[in-house]
Amino acid sequence: MLDITALTKEDAATCPVRSVLSKVTGKWQILIFLALEDESHRFGELKRTVGDITPRVLTENLKSLERDGFLTRTVHSGPPLAVSYELTEMGHSFIKVIKPVVFWAGDNFQSIDAARKKFAS
Amino acid sequence: MLDITALTKEDAATCPVRSVLSKVTGKWQILIFLALEDESHRFGELKRTVGDITPRVLTENLKSLERDGFLTRTVHSGPPLAVSYELTEMGHSFIKVIKPVVFWAGDNFQSIDAARKKFAS
DNA sequence: CTAAATAGTGCGTAATTGATACTTAGTACC
DNA sequence: GGTACTAAGTATCAATTACGCACTATTTAG
């Protein structure tokens, strides 16, 4: 098994696996990856695609993903002013491993729902 | 592309993909899956393996995963009193798709670190 | 009844997330 | 120049969620 043990918070921070997972398995990151999979999008497009994300949170997530090298941010001076976001090679590489997880989610949604109903009884 | 659009919170709650992802991509769930991959473990063993999780949070996560059918909880009346946790078939099925993500994290840790250093400059 | 070992809870605090309204930037029109 | 229009964020404060620590509960041996 991979070593994910961490006796202290400091250990956890230096564990490569944990460090990476914490950057990509939040509530919004995977949705942003999916939205950008096939083509670059502007800020407003991303916001509309995800739908229920607030601009503040979208900005935070995009900054973090840019900082970690998953996507690039390009400013096109207008009119109209436009900023586009695009996955990097590493971003596309990550999408290859996360998509099976997304498909798994789609395939197993009903089993989980069934388990939940059964558990309640 | 898969549809992950949600115009309202209610939409988001009923989106199968989002619903499943929210249950398995938290801070601790993947670590718990990894710890249980090869064999069942008792509460205290899990706590020591993960290392920096508090009992309260471990309990919460185990309850949630049990409720959703990813693992089973078995009480062995003592002495000493023991409670063991074990992945279900669905739990093992999920581990198959999440392990590539974990390996990806291990493989790409340095690229991300490099991107971060470059971005800072 | 007391003790020892394992499993879990309760409660107050800290960090994150969220909603809403506001600010900045670039350009065109008057 | 001044006003307006559109896109891209920010600021502020409230609400939610997660965390840390100490405490409680259960089971059986002596």
Tell me what the structure shows.
2 copies of one chain form a homodimer. Chain A is mainly alpha-helical. Chain A has a single domain (9-120), classed as Arc Repressor Mutant, subunit A, CATH 1.10.10.10. Helix content of chain A is 63%, strand content 12%. The first copy, chain A, has helices at 9-14, 16-24, 29-36, 43-50, 55-67, 89-120, and strands at residues 41-42, 71-76, 82-87. A 3-stranded antiparallel sheet of chain A has the order 1-3-2. In chain A, strand 2 and strand 3 (82-87) form a beta hairpin. The longest helix of chain A has 32 residues, at 89-120. Chain A starts with 8 loop residues before the first helix and ends with a helix. At the A-B interface, helix 1, helix 2, helix 3 and helix 6 of A face helix 1, helix 2, helix 3 and helix 6 of B. Chain A binds a DNA duplex (30 and 30 nucleotides) through helix 5.
Helix content of chain A: 55-70%
H/E order of the elements of chain A? HHHEHHEEH
> How would a crystallographer describe the biggest sheet of chain A?
3 strands, antiparallel
General shape of chain A:
globular
Instruction: Output the strand order for the largest sheet of chain A.
Output: 1-3-2
Q: By CATH's scheme, which homologous superfamily of chain A applies?
A: Winged helix-like DNA-binding domain superfamily/Winged helix DNA-binding domain
**DSSP, total strands of chain A:** 3
CATH class of chain A: Mainly Alpha
